[in-house]
Each structure stands twice: as structure tokens, then as C-alpha cells.
Amino acid sequence: MATAAEGQEDSLFDAAEQAAAAASAPLAVRMRPCTLDEVIGQRHLTGEGTPFRKLIDNDAPMSLLLWGPAGTGKTTLAYVVSRVTKRSFVELSATSAGVKDVRSAVDAARRTLGLTGRQTLLFVDEVHRFSKTQQDALLPAVENRWVSFIGATTENPFFSVVSPLLSRSLLLTLQPLSDEDIGEVISRALADPRGLGGAVSLDDDAAAHLIRLAGGDARRALTYLEAAALGLPGGGRIDTPALERAVDRAAVRYDRDGDQHYDVISAFIKSMRGSDVDAALHYLARMIAAGEDPRFIARRLVVHASEDVGMADPTALQTAIAAAQAVEFVGLPEARINLAQAVIHISLAPKSNAVVKAIGAADADVRAGLLGAVPAHLRDAHYPGAGKVGHGKGYLYPHDFDEGIVAQRYAPDPVAGRTYYEPSRHGLEGRLAERAERIRAVLDQAGHGSAGPDNTGHGNAGPGETKNRRYGKEQA
């Protein structure tokens, strides 16, 4: 039987062991906030009066799904909830746990609740990796409130979480941390006794490089900072070369608000326009490594798919839009592959600037006041009395004619006969150029002063217009 002194010694030993374990924990773990007010970023969730804050302040049972990129605080929020509400914290990783682990954790939580009345917070990281069966195993515990459940996911829960669990949970979306947020995380870690406690300092250039490397991920920022600090035994100052050595990543000279930003994006665009796929991929990689917003890159791809490729290969726009959607749906780092695919497509596609020149020329005429009235035969004829003022009179329904084309004037007088779209002979646009010439030759037969070759024009509504009206389609 242990004596009181032996029991005290065991207690002191346990405390020392826990302190040693805490001291050896990764910096990102040691710097985990203990209260909601310590959480950096996500103020739309943690601010006063928000649904999440009300749940915590009222110590209410909860079932939450936290959706957001890595390193934005999903695990941190779950940990803070358990600390603030004094609930037991049980963490499962969906990458290694199975149904048996889920049921074991729920059974233990039920026993604790029955014996002590203390709630358990069950946190499942990467919950989207659970199979349907594993997710279904959580439902009784969530339904009966045997546990407070928090699931974290980087994937869209509407696709990756089963509907019954999704419908029983409050979905909270976390946003990537801003550069200012990451800077605050770093500053706190440098000064806080739980972190580096002032033992090391960080140059401004190194801090800017670390923020770029973090890419909105607080865990990554702290991991890199800790790696750099370990290379300075006894303390010291972390400069950019020291940080580069620690993380094996060269500092990309790139200021998102300065000359480098505009120079690199300009070179990126001109490389695609010049069909140098290798140079374009270099600049893409350079921007991603420097922490450029991938949505900005995707927007440029969408623009230049039309500006520099256009109708020479209309599928380039489809690829660019798909890449932009992938950026939102997948996020970095994987979305760099989708961006690269779009860059390769645009770079290697036949080039034409006919689209941008066409809309530019049309826009210039409109801005110059070349507007004019809509020709009477093209005006809306679908209301009572329209025929009395000549609206729709003489309109020729193209589908009633061979090839769906009829000699008929469409443009208003000030721009009649103007040619805006001048297709190149590159790629698909070469075939479009031939078709455009044939169509214009037919349309030119109408001249510029009449509705068409037949001024009596089938009355107020030709056979085609009557047919179309029956299906509820407007002719205007």
C-alpha cells in the first residue's frame, strides 16, 4: 500500500512529466489558444453575438462541421471549445480511426456522462475521409447528444459528408488567414513564454518571406519558424538565408503590391501570348511559390483565353473557367495542377485577338454616339397595337430559309455595313472566317435602306414568327 509521501512523489513526477511533454510539443501545439479571445482571425465566427459564440457562452450541446483550408484554426477552435466549456476532449483522426474506434469513443463518453455528468467533446479531424458507414456510426451519438461533436474538413461537406450528419450539424466556414493574421501569429510565438519566449528574433525580410511561405496557414508558419529557430542554438536573429536553409525554400523576390507583382504577371501573360509554354509555367510556379492569390491567376487565365486565343480555339475558355472553379473547389496545393493545365492549353493554342478587337471597335462606336433606332422590322411585335405602328412588319424568320440565313438588315443606320469581327486564319477561326464571309455576302444583298428583299415582308408576323410565338419565345 502506497504511503502519503509516495503518493505525493508520484503526483509531482506526473506533473513534471506533463510539463516536459508540453515543452517538447511542436511550437504550433504550444501556441494553441486557450480562449476564444486569443484566436487570431475568424472573427466572423468568434465575435460577440455570432451563433458559434453563443453556443460557447451558453455552454450548449452542439454538433458542428468546420470547413476551411488547412491551418486556419479548425483544430484550435475545437480545442478552445473543450477548454472553455470544461468538456473532456477526445480527438479522432479519420485517416486512421475506424467504426470500432468511433463506437469505443462514444461508449466511453456515455459512461462519463452517466457517472459524472461531464460532457465529452468528440473531435473528428478530416471527417470527409470517413466512409458512409463510419459517418453513420456517429449519428446516434449526435442525435441523442451523448457527445458534443465537431468535425473538421478541408473538402466541401455538401459532397463529402452524409446528409443525415450534415443536417444535424451547424456548418461553419473558416477563411484563409490574412497576411496580417499570420504576422500576428508569428509575433506572438516569438514573444510568448509558451513559444520562443524572446530567445530569437526575426528580420523584417525574413518575416515577409515566412508570411509568403505560410500562404494563410498558421500551422505552416509556426512549423517553419520553429525549424529556423532550432538552427540558432542559444538564441539569435533569424535572417532570410537562415530561414531559406531551414525550410529548403529559396526566397522568391516578389512583392504582391509592388513592381515584382506587375513584372511577373506581365511576363506570364506575354509568355502565354507568345506560345512559350515553358516560360509561362515558370512564371506560374514563381507566383504560386511567392504566395500569389490563385484566384487572381485564374482570373487572368479566363481573360486571356478570350483575349489571346478567342475563336481560334473556343475550348481554351472552357479550360480556363474549369481551372478557376477548381481553385475554389480544391484549393492549393493541388489546384496548381489545374492552373498548369489551363496555362499549357492557352500557351499552345492557336492565337487570335479578333474577339477583343471586335468588342473594342463596337464599344468605340457606341461611345462615339453611333447608336440609331432599332430597325422597325426587328422591334418587338408581341403586344397589342404593335402592328399599327409598323413594329415587326417585314421581319423575315431565318429558319424559314435555306441554311437559316436571309438577306435582311439588322444593324441601325449609323453603323450599317460596319465590320467589327475580322477573324484570323488561325485554328478553328480559319473556318469561321470563311463562314463569316459567306454570311456577310448574303446579308449585304439586303442593302442598307430596306428591311429585306421583300418589303411587304410577310405582314406583321411571318410564318416563323407565328411559330416562335407559339412556343413563347421573344423575337426582340
Topology:
Blueprint: H1 4-24, H2 27-30, H3 43-46, H4 51-57, E1 63-67, H5 74-85, E2 88-93, H6 99-116, E3 120-125, H7 132-136, H8 139-143, E4 148-153, H9 157-160, H10 163-167, E5 170-173, H11 179-191, E6 200-202, H12 204-214, H13 218-230, E7 236-238, H14 240-247, H15 259-273, H16 277-289, H17 294-309, H18 315-329, H19 335-348, H20 354-367, H21 428-444, H22 463-470
Parallel strand pairs: 1-4, 1-5, 2-3, 3-4, 6-7
Helix pairs in contact: 11-12, 11-13, 12-13, 13-14, 15-16, 15-17, 16-19, 17-18, 17-19, 18-19
Backbone structural class: alpha/beta
Estimate nothing, just give the exact number of structural domains.
Answer: 4
The CATH homology group name of the largest domain? P-loop containing nucleotide triphosphate hydrolases
Strand sequence of the main sheet, in spatial order?
2-3-4-1-5
**Hey, roughly how much beta strand do the residues contain?**
5-15%
CATH architecture of the largest domain: 3-Layer(aba) Sandwich
- Major sheet details: 5 strands, parallel
Q: Could you report the average pLDDT, rounded to the nearest whole number?
A: 79
Instruction: Please estimate the helix content.
Output: 40-55%
Q: Any idea what the radius of gyration is?
A: 33 Å
The CATH topology assignment of the largest domain is: Rossmann fold
Number of helices: 22
CATH C-level label of the largest domain: Alpha Beta
